[in-house]
Amino acid sequence: AEKLVVAKMRVPDYIILCVEDTADWKHGATREVVMKADPDLSRTVIVNTKLDTKVPQFGSPSDVEEFLKASIVSRLAPHKLGGPFFTSVPSGRVGGADDCLFTTDDEFVHACADNEEADRGTVKDRLKSGPATSRALLPRVGLSRLRGFLERRVDECYRRNVAKIVPLLQAEHAAASKRLAAAEQDLEALSMDRLKASADAFCDGFCAALKEAIHGSVVAPPSSFGETLGQENLAAGSFHDRCAMAVSERGWERLVGSDVGNKDHRLYGGSQYHRALREFALATRCLRLPTITEDEVANAAGVGDTHDGV
Question: What keyword terms does UniProt attach to this protein (predicted)?
Answer without folding.
Answer: Coiled coil
